[in-house]
Amino acid sequence: LRIVGARLHRVRLPLVHEFQTSSHRKTHLDHILVELEDASGAIGWGEIASSSDPYYAPETVESCWHIASQYLLPAILGRPWNHPEQLTNRKVRGNNFAKAGVDTAAWALWAETRSLPLATVLGGTRTEVVAGVSLGIEPTIDELLTQVQQQVAAGYPRVKLKIAHDWDVEPVRAVRTAYPELDLHVDANGIYTAGDLEHLRKLDEYRLTMIEQPFAPRDLLTHAELQRTIGTPVCLDESVETVADLEIALKLEALQVLNIKVSRMGGLTPAREAHDRARDAGIAVWCGGMHEFGIGRLANVALSSLPGFTLPSDVSASEKYYARDLVIPAVVAVQGVVQVPQATGLGHTVDRDLITANTVAELSLQL
Ligand code: OSB
Ligand code: MG
Predict the structure, then answer these.
(1) Is the alpha carbon torsion for 238, 71, 268, 9 positive or negative?
(2) Which of 13, 19, 177, 249 makes an SS bond possible with 136, Cβ 3.0 to 4.6 Å?
(3) Which residues are catalytic?
């Protein structure tokens, strides 16, 4: 195989419902689509799902554009390859979101040229995956309960709540009281510090499936301390950017659950490696999301079909976030279950007209 054309499309879509986490608030998203073209004419699409601001991870849409256009794409243009892993860039440090878009496009292209579904070439074994929803911080508890009610009514079996200092025990108690049996978990996006350990232990009585990333990404020791003194499993997200990070976290016993994000890990190649490692270590995994458009969402669905993804993934339907998505058909969930596409490559048609209509910047590199 040989990539003869590489294009970036910065696409802006409005969110149907404003999303607030402990660190930021979003009303629309700009993601960068990566389009790779093989000498045979086959096309592979990937998505760089970086936030606009460096609050979840250090990258931004601008930094991703810079890294992809100046380093990642020039490095693969014209180079012969026969497996996506050969295109992994080991020279560029970090910048995992940018790398993830390119890696995913290479996998989608590879699946396309072999006339196989993306899930199949990854080693996926499931034909459907269970989806959970992630709910942002709402202005009031009543508004949160309305959100939970809507998602439970839509059939989603797991709900995750974003929490922060002034929005933790109370919303959790309210949701738990209203839904005694719901698979419920919380995600702090690293807002707490060691001084909050005692406070966080108050969450232990609400039978949460996990507490996701309570402390800062590099603060593995405090995660280990919380895990030693709480019954609720601790889940890591931001802390694990590489498989080597996972090894350290395992050694420290800083987690019982791992959120694997294609974007945060730098693509499907390292995400699959993390899955294999966690499985060997007996750690449950699920696939996290970054409010992906359809292209990144389908990559998440394909990854979630691997056997170790035993907990519901953040692969809810497109309609939860976007009125119209970039793939046809849009990703749908029926009673919280998403079908793994059986068609070649990503498995859904990429809507070029919709991409063009919502593009705010474009770049094309040709061999
Ligand atoms: O920590 O999981 C997170 C969105 C932006 C930044 C961080 C996170 C999230 C989500 C998205 O929770 C959930 C989804 O895409 O369905
Ligand atoms: Mg998270």
Answers:
(1) positive
(2) 19
(3) 162, 261
